UniProtKB/TrEMBL annotation:
Residues 1-173, 181-378 form the Laminin G domain. Gene3D superfamilies: 2.60.120.200. It holds the Pfam family Laminin_G_2. This is LAM_G_DOMAIN domain-containing protein. SUPFAM superfamilies: Concanavalin A-like lectins/glucanases. InterPro entries: ConA-like_dom_sf, Laminin_G, Neurexin-related_CASP.
Amino acid sequence: NYVHITLDEGAVIATSKFEGTEKRIIRIASKYQSGRFDDDRWHTVTVVRTITLMTLSVDGINDEIRQYAPEIDWLVNSFSYFGGIAKEKLVPGIKVKNFRGCLKNVTFSNFIYLAKFTISEMTTDGSIFAKSVFKLEFIRYEADAYLINFITLANQAYGKSVIRSAGDLSLSCRKVAVSEDTLSFNSGKHFITLPKWNSMASGSLNDMLISGFQLRTQERDGLILFHGSFPSAVTGHDYIAFELIDGHLFMIINLGSGHIRLQTTAEKITDGSAWHTVTLERVGRTGTVTVDNIKTDFSTPGVSANFIVEEPIYLGAVPWPANETHSVDFYVPHSIWSANLRKGFVGCLKNIRINGISPNTAIIFQEQQKSLENGKLA
């Protein structure tokens, strides 16, 4: 039981199938001369499916097809995917590559439709027989209906229970001049800033953070990432950091009621020859850091489960003083050893993901390259 929308040879195809019935297909080609929708233009696609009818609309071109589902009284959806299908959810008969391109205003709505059966007695040639008449009454139940904006939730990362993103995604549709999002830090003194993690500032106890990056370096010590707030009597001091100390990767996190310092590697990862993959998942006070498929669980102290930070994310270093006689209005807690030693990251970072989404580091680097007051990346 599924509905499937795909782009095939430039045409938009909608497929509907109910268990025990043949699948029904609608195909719409472009009204432009090429007859194709893969033309680097925006196109509006809408699919409406009920038990007896599926309608496909593309840029005002409409088509519909009837379908028959005698054993189904209402439609129920257990999961939805946009852009591709997870391997464990593959549907027999669907062999289409994942979508490559841009999507916007992606919404999914589901309403409860009641089906009523009535029995009518009719007389034909003196005989009396019973005829089942199938009648649909479209009744929208606000308590059971829902509207999901996938892109908004992907950006806010509300958690596994609602939406989760995977793969190479970015909240942008701009063409990037740089071929990949690999950053090279050569001096250990310079940094790049990224926007804050919106999902971590919502205050939800069930907030989920899914982040990650890949690194390659030969330097044993250095600050990779820092995201923190200034100390406050009201909110405490929320921060998170990743750093290298003596070749090992450490994560330091504080949700406002005490920090933990977690060594996430048993062996040194500063060989310089291989990329090492790091992933952080957090729900409230608990989480997991995975380095090269080796997981380390953690739980933060105290009762605070919220991460409230309005400042940007720093990669590679933070704006520490140039020397002992200078000072800057920037606070880094003592639990982050590399920052207090003024040792920035020297090496390469790539595939940076915040809430499972690429923050477009290549674009951000281009925008900041001319404006960084504390140096530049090379």
